[in-house]
Amino acid sequence: MRDESTQSLYEFNKDLSTVSDESLRLELEQSYRIINALSSSYHDVYYANLETGNMRSYRYSRITQEMFGRQFENGDFETNLYTYVRKAVHPDDQELFEPVLTRASIKKVFERQDSYSLKYRVVQDGEIHYCRCLVVKILGRPEEFVFAFQNRDREMMMESEKKNDMKRRMDIVMSMVKMYDNSLYVNVSSNRFLELKISPAIRDMIDKTKTYDSQLANVIENAVTRDYQEAMREFLDINTINERMGFKNVMSMEFKGRTTGWSEAYLIVGNRDADGLVEDVFVATRGINEEKLQKLLQQEQERKQNNQLTEALRLVNSANEAKKLFLQDMSQDIRFSLNDIRRLADISWLDLEHPERMSGERMQQIVASMRQIGEISDVLQKMVDSALKKALEE
């Protein structure tokens, strides 16, 4: 529905220009401007008198004119309102107007209160629009009142989006609840919480009538082992959550419970305000005792394997050192024999300068000496090659 007015405050009160007292005229104009500002959110505003039943329009929207012409500019209040309800209001909502449909019913309302408001639907061109009607008694003038009409389409759209967003959030939360043993939804500003899922182990420790902080202290004292209590107090403190959370949406820490063994605690942001500060947070815990024990066992196995590898490496290095010393000693022993043979060969070569003094037996000794030298060199080379190969393989 369009929210246009064809008659403004100034147009309705244009005769103020004829007021001779300038100060009075200025005061009236200022009052009318204030009234006009306060009523600007309403597309139709009317003044009516309970004694005479007469009404006149203060703001008359174009959309109302398209539906009823100039009928509502003035005339009888009861007749005009009855026409509006029967022709424009959704059939299911027409009975909502019964408390204000007649002057007698309005008088009864004003005996108890100074105003009355109702929400209803309007059918126009096959479309449904959402509206609000407000009836207000003029203070000091019991026989006079104002009734105004406001379009709520945008408001309903925002409410629908908010409900859909909340439903999506709750769907996410409820799916998350299944993953945890305990879960609370905490409002940071009010320090209040909503139980989503509580395990029997801590149910007796929680009192829903108290604040989150007071419950936190009690649960940590009775459910968490002493070594982890201080860390858990700091982790679950919602008063410092913005400083610690920053732009993150999830934080977690492991702790050990008195009866539950190893567990993991989570802080999950549920909602942030326009400045990015956390408004609501999802607090949850889940048991990880089996996972933690397997992890600790794996770490112990890895530690033992590392120790075994370290010991094996030490033994290999020790063996290599012993082999090195053995080869050095063996090489030294062989070198002594080889030198003796070489000296014998050198002496024999001297006889070659005087062949007339060298017998056949002497020549055979020289040849045998040279053969031994070659064989010993081959053996040493094979030993060196074998040692290098083993070192590379190890």
TrEMBL record:
<protein>
    <submittedName>
        <fullName>PAS domain-containing protein</fullName>
    </submittedName>
</protein>
